[in-house]
Amino acid sequence: MTEIPEPAGTGDYIVKTGDSMVSIAARSGHIPSTIWNDSANAALKTARKDPEVLLPGDRVTIMAVRTKGLSRATGQRWVFQRKGLTAKVTLIAQDEDGNAFASKRFQLEIDGAVVSGTTDADGKIECVVAAQSTSGTLTLWLEEPGLPNPWVREVGLAALYPIEHPVGVQQRLANLGYYSGPLDGASDVSAAVAAFQKAQKLDATGVVDDTLRKKLVAAHKI
Predict the structure, then answer these.
(1) Which of 54, 91, 132, 141 sits most deeply, having the most CB atoms within 10 A of its CB?
(2) CATH class label, 85-159
(3) CA–CA distance from 120 to each of 88, 97, 123, 198 (Å)?
(4) pLDDT digit string (tens) for 32-90?
């Protein structure tokens, strides 16, 4: 039986539900890699392995922002770009059997900003959002028999729990379209697990085991 992970890290900042390394960095004036790769966060990095997989209660060291001086000639116009204000989001739109919603018109609304376009051959949608965005709504116009039109889903953009945590399993099943229940770590996910296992050509036992967790992580990163 897999043990539920405990909070990791030794920093002063305590991770809250919905925090991600991107949002933490944006609030503190850093880019995510600066915090993630700081030697003071080595224990956290070893435990989580992915900067967008955090557990509420994890502790993060956030160093003071350092200034950097640049010399430029006067009498000319210079453009400087601040990093860390946005984050890239990738979504895969597909049915419960894993078939892609290819070449479908979509609209993604996140924090009042709207992105429109067409999914690619794999049902993929890529866009840039504000670093502290946590949720949005995806609308697809499928125009296919037997399917709702438009097809609407809520999209969660907050950090994931570790896959070893029950909430981490629920989150990934929800993001892949197999689970619509509460993200509480206690609600039954056996039907969702069985459906996912069937789509992955595994025995549809409905049981969460190490094989299931590895498949969920792999499918979620596609």
Answers:
(1) 54
(2) mainly beta
(3) 17, 18, 5, 25
(4) 999 999 999 999 999 999 998 999 999 999 998 877 677 778 878 877 656 656 777 88
Query: What sign does the CA torsion over 212, 6, 47, 185 have?
Result: positive
Domain 160-222 sits in CATH at: 1.10.101
Rounded Cα distance, 19 and 13, in Å? 11
Residue type for position 27: R
Question: At a CB cut-off of 8 Å and minimum separation 6, what does 218 contact?
Answer: none
Domain ranges of the chain: 13-60, 85-159, 160-222
Tell me the pTM: 0.75
d(CA 171, CA 186): 12
